[in-house]
Write a structure and sequence with these properties.
The complex is a heterodimer of chains A (114) and B (110). Chain A is mainly β. Chain A is built from no helices and eleven strands. In chain B, a hairpin with a 2-residue loop joins strand 6 and strand 7. The chains are: A mainly beta (114), B mainly beta (110).
């Protein structure tokens, strides 16, 4: 157990729907990162939050949004889902803004859009 | 410039062999280079990492070699075991985010 908890582990939904993925960072970690992993794109950085504030943005679609709450858990919202959004979504956390050390990843949420 | 190029895409070695995975980058602002190991159904796990002011780092059977002038770094796995069969990702950090290579699927045959 890495200490980073992601729920749900699996999600199957239809095109056009909206889903929310949840992440609880490792105890004491202030930064949360979201990554998308698909077969043809590898691990793609989506967005980072640090202590409740957005810190960095990557290749995140406008249909996707995220937030980090006061208790430091984070949610990734995916809307108007398309077949191509099917992927593994990973959350990672780190103790600082990422300036020192690596990230700890959760086990991921496998999203299947049908 | 934000890319990290990783090779080979896949690798098969015999037990006891020394697989080598290579990565190259362009962005000189990268300041930290970790390697992650991922097993099927699991998230990537930090394996070993190096900073650009160090040319080599060893942790157990895993060694990172770093060539700053060539902007290349590599992972060597000594005495590889079937349990090392996994996907390996190199990464580089810039401005608090990690950029990952495309991954290398390693299979160690017993």
């Amino acid at each position: 157990d890495s200490g980073v908890t992601q729920t749900p582990k699996h999600l199957i939904t239809a095109t056009g729907q909206r889903v929310t993925l949840r992440c609880s960072p490792r105890s004491g970690d202030l930064s949360v990162y979201w990554y998308q992993q698909s077969l043809d794109q590898g691990l793609q950085f989506l967005i980072q939050y640090y202590n409740g504030e957005e810190r960095a943005k990557g290749n995140i679609l406008e249909r996707f949004s995220a937030q980090q709450f006061p208790d430091l858990h984070s949610e990734l919202n995916l809307s108007s889902l398309e077949l191509g959004d099917s992927a593994l979504y990973f959350c990672a956390s780190s103790g600082q803004t990422g300036a020192v050390g690596g990230y700890t990843f959760g086990s991921g949420t496998r999203l299947t859009v049908v | 410039q934000q890319q990290v190029k990783q090779s080979p895409q896949s690798l098969i070695v015999q037990k006891g062999g020394i697989p080598i995975i290579n990565c190259a980058y362009e962005n000189t602002a990268f300041d930290y280079f970790p390697w992650y190991q991922q097993f099927p159904g699991k998230g990537p796990a930090l394996l070993i990492a190096i900073r650009p002011d160090v040319s080599e780092k060893k942790e157990g059977r895993f060694t990172i070699s770093f060539n700053k002038s060539a902007k290349q770094f590599s992972l060597h796995i000594m005495d590889s075991q079937p349990g090392d069969s996994a996907t390996y990702f190199c990464a580089a950090r810039s401005m608090s985010k990690l950029v990952f290579g495309a991954g290398t699927i390693l299979r160690v045959k017993s």
